[in-house]
Amino acid sequence: MPQTFTKIADIRSAIADCKQHKQTIVIVPTMGNLHNGHLQLIDTAKQHGDVVIATIFVNSMQFGLNEDWEQYPRTAGEDIAKLQTKDCDWVFLPTHAEMYPNGIKSQTLITEPTMSKILCGASRPVHFDGVTTVLTKLINITTPDYLVLGSKDYQQLQITRKMLQDVCSSVKVIASPIAREADGLAYSSRNMFLSSYERTHANILNRALLTTKDKVSRGRRDLRNIENEAIDQITDTGFRVDYFQICRPDSLQVATSINTKLIALGAMYADHTRLIDNMHLL
Ligand code: AMP
Questions:
Q1: How far apart are the two ends of the chain, measured CA to CA in Å?
Q2: If residue 274 lies in a helix (H) or strand (E), which one and from where to where?
């Protein structure tokens, strides 16, 4: 079984021991309810360090008032068993009070002011402040050499990279590819909320990304038309599109026909369940 820590002081003293033995630390932050996407991050982490720490914390700070923090699945026992199959060394499972002893309202925020306001940030205004704040805390607690993040949350990945650069952190970010179900749907802890109709058709987001990539590969560069066609494709299947945008992969600014590197990002709602996905086009 991976060794489980719930207290900051305990994991800090164990990490001090590792550092004395010159061991490399890698952290894999998660909100639990682990699936194959998360487990792939552990495989990536194992390739980069001596001590792999999965953190499991459903961070209330990154959920909006009307979002699904309370419903978010909490399955710590099963998560630890899955981590064992991957030889994960440690699990850090702090309580809310351990992470926010003075409550959320008085917590100092780490805000990335530009990239965090667009795409997912436009419809989830507090989300990325919660993410960058909790990641900063987890990094300060565990002082890792490497931080492993999934490319499924591409905007989170780019914001985190920028935030760490902005605060002169020496932590290196490793991006792991998107893990998908056989039909192309990206693994997500929220997939369990889908009805049977929604689950059958939820891969439309991935299919729209593939169609988009195909159009760009064939030489089309009317990016706004291509985005609108993808939105129609998803809407016609019965889902509500939050956004579907072709961007520059570094800054996430809206791309134009002259850009030589492109990524498409999309978010859609299946009833109340919000699903995201992305794909590099060029
Ligand atoms: P979460 O538990 O949803 O906060 O995700 C924790 C980490 O797992 C984040 O770095 C996510 O990007 C990553 N992740 C979640 N789903 C996937 C997936 N399908 N493929 C790759 N990484 C993922």
A1: 42
A2: strand 273-280
Q: Count Cα atoms within 13 angstroms, Cβ side, for 75.
A: 15
Distance of alpha carbon 122 from alpha carbon 92, whole angstroms = 31
What are the two backbone dihedrals, phi and then psi, of residue 195, each rounded to the nearest 5 degrees?
A: -70, 170
Mutation probe of ligand 1 site: the residue of 30, 55, 93, 120 with most atoms within 8 A of C-beta? 30
**Is a pLDDT exceeding 90 seen at residue 66?**
no
Token pair 């495989």: residue: 43
Which residue owns the Cα nearest ligand 1 atom 5? Answer: 30
Give mean pLDDT, residues 194-202: 98
How does the average pLDDT of the chain come out, rounded? 97
Q: Are 147 and 172 in contact (CB under 8 A)?
A: yes
Q: Can 48 be counted among the known catalytic residues?
A: no
Q: What is the pLDDT of residues 70-110, one digit of tens each?
A: 999 999 999 999 999 999 999 999 999 999 999 999 999 99
**Can you tell me whether residue 270 is helix, strand or coil?**
strand
Tokens at residue 109, please?
């925020």
- Report the pLDDT value the prediction gives residue 33, as an integer from 0 to 100: 97
